[in-house]
Each structure stands twice: as C-alpha cells, then as structure tokens.
Specification:
The complex is a heterodimer of chains A (about 300) and B (about 270). Chain A has about 300 residues and is α/β, with parallel strands linked by helices. Chain A has helices spanning about 40-50, 70-75, 90-100, 105-115, 130-140, 160-175, 185-190, 210-215, 230-240, 260-265, 280-300, and strands at about 1-10, 15-25, 30-35, 55-60, 75, 145-150, 180-185, 195-200, 205-210, 220-225, 240-245, 250-255, 270-280. Chain A is about 35% helix and about 25% strand. Helix content of chain B is about 80%, strand content about 0%. Classes of the chains: A alpha/beta (about 300), B mainly alpha (about 270).
Amino acid sequence: MLRISRVTRQFGSVAALSDVSFDVAAGERVALLGHNGAGKSTLMKIVLGLIPATSGSVSVAGHAPGSRAARDLTAYLPENVAFHPALTGREQLRFYLRMKGEPPKAAEGLLERVGLGHAIDRRIGTYSKGMRQRVGLAQALIGRPRLMILDEPTSGLDPVSRREFYAILDELAKGGAAILLSSHALTEVEARTDRIAILSRGILVANDTIAALRRGAGLPIQLQVAARPETADEVAERLAGVRVNGRRVDVTCEPDDKLDRLGKIAGLGHLVDDVEVVPPSLEDIYSHFSRLADRREGRA
Amino acid sequence: MSRVLAAAGAEFRIALRNRWVTIAVAMMALFAAVLSAAGSAPTGQLGADKLSVTVASLTSLAVYLVPLIALLMSFDAIAGEVERGTLPLILTYPVARWQLLAGKFLAHLGILALSVVVGYGIAAAAAFWFDPRAGAGLAALFRLTWTSLLLGAAFLGIGYAISAFARRPGAAAGLVIGLWLVLIVLYDLGLLAAVVADAGGTFTRAVFPWLLLANPADAFRLYNLAASEATAVAAGIGGAAGAIPPARALASLVLWAVAAFAFGVAAFRRVTP
C-alpha cells in the first residue's frame, strides 16, 4: 500500500532523512520510533505530499504522494492536532466529511465511535486535549481510508482511551488498512503493532518484527526468581544472581542460555516459590539500535 | 463546488461566532446613519434628488470603509490557519488550495454584501423619508452597491496574498493596515501634490489619469461619480478626472478583483505547511 524507497530530505546542509526505504502492506500496522528530531514527522509529511523529498520516491498504492488519488486514499492525524475553536465538534466533522466528498450526516456516528457523543454540539474551544485528539481520530476515520498516517496518536490520551484507540486501529487493520504510526510510548506499541521501524538521526536503523529485533539485538534476558522466605541469600549464591530484596533474586543470561538456567532454577525445588522471564524491553532494543547507529556513524 | 461551499459555510460560521459579521454590519450601518443625518439639510438649489446626493456621499464613505473591512477580514485567512496549526491537516484532504481560498472568499464577500446592503439601505431609507423624488437615484444606488462588492473583492484578494506572504497573523495585520494607508489615504494625497506642482503640465494630462485608474479605490470612485448625475456635488479629484471614460474605470475595477484573487491563490500555493 505504501512504498518508501531511498528517500532523502535535506534542510539546508542538514540531512533530516537519509536513504530511508521500507514498505507498509495492506492490513499491516507499523510503528515508527525515534527520538525527537529523528525525522519521523518529516517522513510522514513527505508520505502525505506536504513537503517534497530531496531524492528518492514514495508511492501510495501506485500514486504519487499528494496527488488527488493518493489523498483520496489517505487519512492523517497530525501531532498536536488543532481545530478552529469557534466550531462545534459536529460542525468541524461535517466540514471534513464534505471535504472528503462524504455525506455530512456521518458526523454523529463518527463522533460517537470515538466517545464524543456527549460533547458533539459543544465548541471545540471548550474541549480538553484528549477530546481534541479524539476529534482528530474521528476525522481520520472518514471514508474507510486505505492508508493511515498517525503522528503520536495517543499523546494526551488516558490509558482507557488508549485501549479504545488501539481497538479501533485493530478493526481498521482487519479491514485491510495500512497503518503507519509514530510513538514515544514504546511499551504500548509493542503489543499493538506488527512491525517496528526505528529512525535515528534520519537513518533507518531497524525494520522488523519485535521478536526478530529481540533476536537480532541479542540482549540479555532477565529471570526474576522469587525465593521462599529466608532462602534468598542461598538462592542468589547457587544461581550466581543478584539479591534485589528479601525475596527476589535477579539472574541475567544470554537468550541461548535461557532454558538451561530455567532448568537450574527448577532444580532448586522447595527453595524457589516462582520465576518470571523478562525479555529485553522495547526501550532496551530501541537504545541498542540507536547506539549501534551512533557508533557506526562515529566510525564513518 | 460542494467543497468550496463547505469551506464557505465553515468560514461564515466562524465569522459569525467571532462577531465579525456583527462588527462589519454595525460599522457600515453606523457610518451610513451618521452620513444621512449630516446630509439631511435641504439641497434644493442643486436640482438633484436626495438619493443621488446620498449616493455621492456614500461613495466617498465606501472608498474608505469597504477596503478596510475587506482587509480586516482577509488578513487572518491563511496566516491564522498556519498559526493555529490547522493548515497541514486540511491540505492532506482531496481539495485544491484554490477551492479552500474560494470558499473563504465567498464567505467574506457575503459578509461584505450584507454590511453594504444594510448600510446603504439605511441611507436610502433616510433619503426617501426626506425627498419623495428619491426614486430617481435608485439606479445610482444599485450601481454603487455592486461596484462596492467589486472593490471589496479586490481588497479581499490582496489581503489573502498578504496573509500567505506574511505567514504570521500579527505581521499580516500590520501589513494590511499599512497597505490601506498607502492605497487609500496617501496615494490620493501624493497625486494631488503632484498635480499641484505640475500645474497642468504633461504629468497632469498624460500620466495622472492612468495613475488614477491603477488604484482600485480611485477607479471605484471615478466610475461611480462619472456615471452619476451628482458629479457636481462631489468634492476632491472628481473634476480633474472628468476626461477618463467610465468604462475604463470599471475595467480596472474588474481586472483588480480577478487579478487580486489569482494573486492570493498564487501566494497560497507557495506556503509550505
């Protein structure tokens, strides 16, 4: 659905993006991660046709970005989405519906779907940030888009709203929409996306499923062992682990060693109450790949 | 077309909520009422009917007020969207930039029409009250109304171009006020000074008429005063410009209205969100 190939964008002498290539297929949810200024928003604006790429090409279902056909297929939710404060939620959404050539009657249903049914006739100027974000989501749902570009879509949403938001995304992906979303909240995209692309200073340093990224990074796994009362010291000694508090002992091991270590823990029998396997978090993977890119750049 | 109308509808609603409609209508009504009260003295010796005289005074009023209202409504059109951050989103919709601007233009022109009709209506009603022969001036009033809209259209387009060029509402506001001062106030003063200094030389005969035609506000005044029977009561530059055919003044006005909008669209196209 979306194909980005060898996109570079220069701002003066600064390269905001260098040689970025990846695809997003229909029905796929891809998270775009990166620090502030890593080039996420710039890449999104190029995909939307708002700014041109210095070199490289983007195609949206075979159309040029920003072309009429591409804009018909695409929905966008900008970071810190803004609306005119003097309009009500219903008026604003009717406006966007008509701009997409859809019947304005759909406004009510869309606003109810994002949980704004109660505030539909209030001015957007009176909305909270989370409510404005929901209006933004509602306009992105107009006309069954085939490609959704969502820039920090869950910023300003509380945990319950986030869950509702991702439930809507799941539905859309099931319906065959290609979704590209950027986020800072690494843990939440972990469970909710199919693939992760990491941008670091304009360079795509990783682009794979989370499981594959974990394997590729080869980061150590943590085993958290809950010992029986009074046995924590003995457990720590026999497993060569670190005692965290009165009950818990942490053991760090390589991914290949995991089963072997678990066997040893099981061998301790009555000394151990429980064990928890903690794979490297997305934060760890993310900083691993960012560091890797920095080092590579430093050497070059 | 439905996208243009949707944009116009939203813009009109915003102007209504921001009190812009009220302000524009009240401003025109107030000035027209004051003008009627001041001009209610008998004018029998001039031989013109009351409404024709009123139209001549309204022309001088409109030259100042119509461009001012148009510029005040238009300076925020693009710079405001940039500042609020609403521009990037709407530009990803399947709608052309000229359609968005045409929508705003329709709404702003509608508001201007409303205020002009209310203001001129009050002045006309007062004229009919004092002079039963006022019907003779109806044609002039009608001409004044639609040329006022042409004048307003020209300044709306100029305001959009400035709004796109300035990017920030504060800068755009300053620029439109400056432009209003130059085109409406200083331009005529400068021409007058030049004509006086020239004392009937080549400048007055060959250059001056074209300079008058080049300014939409002067073209508007020329056309209305030349076409009206009340030329005699008009003060200012009317007499000196008697040699200019009214058709040329009208052509200048139409050209300005069309060119200014095209200019506004061209400036909007250069804005990168």
